[in-house]
Amino acid sequence: MVLHGRLITYLATLSTFFTARAAIPSPKAATDLICHTNHASECYPQTFQPTEKFQTVHDDQNLPPGLHVRMNLATGVKEARLNIPEPNEDVDASALTIIDDSDLAGYQQPNREADNPPIASQQEDSRQQPFLPPQHDVAEGTLFSDSASTIKNPNSHMSDLLPAIENLEDLAHSYHWGLSLAKDGDIIHKLFQLLLPTQLSLDIRSLATLVFGTAIHNNEAALTAALSHFYNDEWPEGPLEAVIMALLHEQSPLLLNRMLFLLSSLCQDQNQLQKFLEAGGMELLIKTYQAEPTAVDDRDRLRKKVTHFVLDHLLPTAETGDTDIPNGNDGIEEEPDPDSEWTMIHLQQLAEKYPGHQNDEL
């Protein structure tokens, strides 16, 4: 009888123990965890797992793209969630929210020792310092605004115009400032005018071309925004037509190189690529590839630009599933040889495939 009572007590103790253990959620075995302390609940996934609510993003976590990210200026904590619009909020993959002190009423730092008793001997916390937001945003904003105003001002002196364009070129590498520039129709139209054949200096024209290409390069939102300012009653043509005219008539290797860069950025949009091909773009690329500038280095740079354009836009990898455009980049190294026959052979094959409209000027 005593043995029977002890057995019942033992089984009840085991049941209580396993019930308590089950109440603590365990991470999935397939998820790689990062643990800096002996507190089991302070471990977190190596790749951030977003939900509909903001969660803290640790400095050493991998952050997937396309999330709504915000930085808390008071605590230095970066937070993220799924990019789901709230009322009166636009969806933006680059969304950034800054929390000021007024949003922290009643906020208290959690007591980790009270909430998470150690499961082993206490060890020194080796976590890095909290993520701190950059301190130059205000200065960049002022520089962007001043430079854009100078460029848009029809009375700006040429001595002020070139430094202003240089400032925008530096800022346009940022996703945020590239998108801000592309959304401003006035500045986009002004850059478009500056890159056209005019009496302006070659330096200004080539730099305006570079700024335009930089702002939309690998920035789909900026590319869409920039193109939205063209192909209407007021602006029936756009930067693509300016590039085509430059490839037809310009002789400067520097300007042609930057026009090819702008062309590559524009052709990230499939409609722009199709328009280029229909306008006899392959013959233009052949003409540019066969050009013989005075300096061999200039020739080589032009040929490399053309080769990269072919690789990036006309010979996609098989994973794209595009059966209308030939695949394969056999024989091309990461840095193509300007004397290789590979590019010329493919240019001729592609010209037969995409003859475009015949242009008497070619």
Care to give the gist of this entry?
The protein is of the alpha+beta class and 362 residues long. The chain is built from 14 helices and six strands. Helix 5 crosses helix 7 (202-216).
- Can you list the strand order of the major beta sheet? 3-5-4-6
- Biggest sheet statistics: 4 strands, mixed
Q: Overall mean pLDDT score?
A: 76
Per DSSP, the total helix count is 14
Return the structural class: alpha+beta
Proportion in helices: 40-55%
Order of helix and strand elements from N to C terminus: HEEEEEEHHHHHHHHHHHHH
Q: Would you identify the regions where 5 or more consecutive residues have pLDDT less than 50?
A: 7-30, 90-96, 98-107, 119-136, 317-333
Any overview of this molecule?
This protein has 362 residues and is α+β, with helices and mostly antiparallel strands. The chain has 14 helices and six strands. The protein has helices at 2-22, 112-115, 137-152, 158-171, 175-183, 185-194, 202-216, 220-227, 239-249, 253-266, 270-278, 281-289, 296-314, 342-353, and strands at residues 33-34, 44-45, 55-57, 67-72, 77-82, 96-99. The strands form two sheets. Strands 3-5-4-6 form a four-stranded mixed sheet, with no helix packed on it. A two-stranded antiparallel sheet has the order 1-2. A hairpin with a 4-residue loop joins β4 and β5 (77-82). α10 runs parallel beside α13 (296-314) and α12 (281-289) packs antiparallel against α13. The longest helix is centred in the N-terminal third of the chain and has 21 residues, at 2-22. The radius of gyration is 29 Å and the shape is globular. The model is unreliable at 7-30, 90-96, 98-107, 119-136 and 317-333 (pLDDT under 50).
